[in-house]
Amino acid sequence: MKKIKKIINKKNRSKIVCLTAYSKNIAEEIDKHVDIILVGDSLGSVLYNYSSTRKVTLTEMINHSKSVRLGVKKSLMVVDMPFRTYTTKNIALKNAKKILNETKCDAVKLEGGKKVIKQVEYLIKNKIPVMGHLGLLPQSVKGKFKSKGKTSREIKQLMNDAMLLQKTGVFAIVLECVKTPIAKQITKDLKIPTIGIGSSVHCDGQVLVTDDLLGLNETKIKFVKRFLNIKKYINLGLKKYASDVRSKKYPSKKHSY
């Protein structure tokens, strides 16, 4: 709970940095720079080329989370509950307990507001920390992804859901692709932090898929900024390796038994 209180206390004080990780090696490096590491169900598209996060299984989430846990020393570790693993409060509790027990993570994340509030409430009642997720909900999308907060109905629902989640006891809420004025207002109204992704600088923190910011994916999503072209360096290493093998420079005596 200390890690969660630390995140909550950053509200209106300092920006919260969050990134995704799906393996120990990447988590180890991310852990040096961030406050929250999210094992996102985005691993479905990033690692498995699934057309939707709906195809991600509980087993996949747990296996990747176990690996990530080995690389995390200081950050708060949050794991996404995949599609159909929290359809009722009892199913949610069973699966959330399984995730926490097997991965040793600090919290779980569920998508939605009023529709999943009974599940969220039941988890928190049973001492399982929950992060909320509003706006664009990848597990619910059929077809093209669209930003949220354009109509008065969407705005009212986002506002109500945010307050409802806070009242229920979530420690933070991810706002995905929420229109800037609405994300700003929700962040101002809430006492808990908001973590934005495509929802402007006005959120209390930001999250991105690590593979996207490093340039491993050829994504054209508007909210993604490529901070490094890591493919360039990967190719340099691979080219050198291939060259050394073909010219018999590798393996040398130094690298042979």
Q: What is Rg?
A: 20 Å
Number of helices: 10
* Low-pLDDT runs: none
SS class: alpha/beta
- Per DSSP E runs of 2 or more residues, the count of β-strands stands at 8
CATH level-4 homologous superfamily of the largest domain: Phosphoenolpyruvate-binding domains
Distance from first to last alpha carbon: 50 Å
Biggest pleated sheet: 8 strands, parallel, barrel
Q: What letter string, H or E per element, gives the SSE order?
A: HEHEHHEHEHEHEHEEHH
Tell me roughly what share of residues is in helical segments.
Answer: 40-55%
CATH architecture of the largest domain: Alpha-Beta Barrel
Q: Using the alpha-carbon principal axes, give the shape.
A: globular
Percent strand = 5-15%
User: How would you write the strand order of the largest sheet?
Assistant: 1-2-3-4-5-6-7-8
The level-1 CATH class of the largest domain: Alpha Beta
Care to describe what's here?
40% of the residues lie in helices and 14% in strands. It is an alpha/beta fold. The chain folds into two domains: 2-226, Alpha-Beta Barrel (TIM Barrel); 230-257, no CATH class. Strands 1-2-3-4-5-6-7-8 form an eight-stranded parallel beta barrel, surrounded by six helices. α2 (24-30) crosses α4 (58-69), α4 runs parallel beside α5 (89-103) and α5 crosses α6 (117-125). The longest helix has 17 residues, at 152-168. The relative contact order is 0.12.
